[in-house]
C-alpha cells in the first residue's frame, strides 16, 4: 500500500539477500521505522512483542524466521527447534501453525545443503500468495459494498465499521477487512470508515487510522463502545472485521470486543461480515468458544498507555487505580449465527460447515 506516495509491503527480503526487513508496528502512530531481522530469534521476538501482528503477517514472518534458522544451521534438529520456538510466540493465530507446518513438512524433504534456499523461496511464496488472496477478498468484498452504494444518494458514502487492524499492516499487502475498502476508494465508490480505537493496544486508533489516513481514505476514530450507538441511529451500513482463527463451522475468533459488535449488529439489522484468507480457517475445530485458545496478555497493556505529549515527546503513563488487578484476554469468539457472511478468496460464504467445506474441499481432506 501507499505510505505518502511510496509503495510498501509489511515484510520483505533485505538488499543483502539474507536478512529480512519489517515495519516496526510498536512505533505507530508516532514513527515509521524499519527493523532488520538477522536471526530466527529476531523473528520470534518481532512476533512476540508485536512488532509484526495480524494472523497473515505473523505466518509470513514465521516462514522467514525458519529461513533465517536454515541459513544458520540447516540440520533437522535446527528445523524442529526453530519451528517449536516460533510456534510458542503467539497461541491464537492459526496462520502461525499453518506456515510452520508447511515449512517443516516441505523442508524435511529437501537435502540440508539446499534447505536455506528452499526456505527463502517458500517464505517468498507465502507472501505472494497472501497478496493474491487479499486482492481476491477485496474484489468479493467490493461487490458487497457496491450493492449498498447503489441504495445511496449520489456521492453519499457507505459507512463501514471495523474493529482492530485487519488492514495492510496485518498482512503482507492490501489487508483483509480493508482490502474491499481500498478497492472501493480507488474505484470511485465513496466509503467512510468508523475506526474502533480497539483497546488495550489501540490497533484501530494507532494502526488502522494511520494507514487509512496515509492512503487517503475518509475515516473517523471512535471509542470501542460507540459502535452500538451508531448502529442504532442508522450511521453504520455494514461491519467488516478480520479474524485470527475461524472454525470449520464458521465461529470467528478476533480481537477482544468483536463479539459485542456482532451482537449489536444483529440487534440493529446491520450486516456483519468477516474477511479472511483460507489459511485462517482451522478445519480441526468445530466449537470456537470451547476449543480456540485465547491469549492472555500482560496487564501492563491495560494499565498503561503510550501517547504523544503537547511538547512532542512520547511517554507512557499509568491509567488504572494503583493496586487494582488487571485482566487482559486478547481475543473473543463470535458464534457463526451472528455472522452474515465470510469474505474469502473464493467468494462470500455462509458461516457454516457445508459452505466452508464446499469452497475448500482440499483443506477438508488434509485435515481429515
TrEMBL record:
<dbReference type="Pfam" id="PF01008">
    <property type="entry name" value="IF-2B"/>
</dbReference>
<dbReference type="InterPro" id="IPR027363">
    <property type="entry name" value="M1Pi_N"/>
</dbReference>
<dbReference type="GO" id="GO:0019509">
    <property type="term" value="P:L-methionine salvage from methylthioadenosine"/>
</dbReference>
<dbReference type="InterPro" id="IPR011559">
    <property type="entry name" value="Initiation_fac_2B_a/b/d"/>
</dbReference>
<feature type="active site" description="Proton donor">
    <location>
        <position position="244"/>
    </location>
</feature>
<feature type="binding site">
    <location>
        <begin position="254"/>
        <end position="255"/>
    </location>
    <ligand>
        <name>substrate</name>
    </ligand>
</feature>
<keyword id="KW-0028">Amino-acid biosynthesis</keyword>
<dbReference type="InterPro" id="IPR005251">
    <property type="entry name" value="IF-M1Pi"/>
</dbReference>
<dbReference type="InterPro" id="IPR042529">
    <property type="entry name" value="IF_2B-like_C"/>
</dbReference>
<dbReference type="InterPro" id="IPR000649">
    <property type="entry name" value="IF-2B-related"/>
</dbReference>
<dbReference type="InterPro" id="IPR037171">
    <property type="entry name" value="NagB/RpiA_transferase-like"/>
</dbReference>
<comment type="function">
    <text>Catalyzes the interconversion of methylthioribose-1-phosphate (MTR-1-P) into methylthioribulose-1-phosphate (MTRu-1-P). Also catalyzes the interconversion of 5-deoxyribose 1-phosphate and 5-deoxyribulose 1-phosphate. Part of a bifunctional DHAP-shunt salvage pathway for SAM by-products.</text>
</comment>
<feature type="site" description="Transition state stabilizer">
    <location>
        <position position="164"/>
    </location>
</feature>
<dbReference type="GO" id="GO:0046523">
    <property type="term" value="F:S-methyl-5-thioribose-1-phosphate isomerase activity"/>
</dbReference>
<feature type="binding site">
    <location>
        <position position="90"/>
    </location>
    <ligand>
        <name>substrate</name>
    </ligand>
</feature>
<feature type="binding site">
    <location>
        <position position="203"/>
    </location>
    <ligand>
        <name>substrate</name>
    </ligand>
</feature>
<protein>
    <recommendedName>
        <fullName>Methylthioribose-1-phosphate isomerase</fullName>
        <ecNumber>5.3.1.23</ecNumber>
    </recommendedName>
</protein>
<feature type="binding site">
    <location>
        <begin position="53"/>
        <end position="55"/>
    </location>
    <ligand>
        <name>substrate</name>
    </ligand>
</feature>
<keyword id="KW-0486">Methionine biosynthesis</keyword>
<keyword id="KW-0413">Isomerase</keyword>
<comment type="pathway">
    <text>Amino-acid biosynthesis; L-methionine biosynthesis via salvage pathway; L-methionine from S-methyl-5-thio-alpha-D-ribose 1-phosphate: step 1/6.</text>
</comment>
<comment type="similarity">
    <text>Belongs to the EIF-2B alpha/beta/delta subunits family. MtnA subfamily.</text>
</comment>
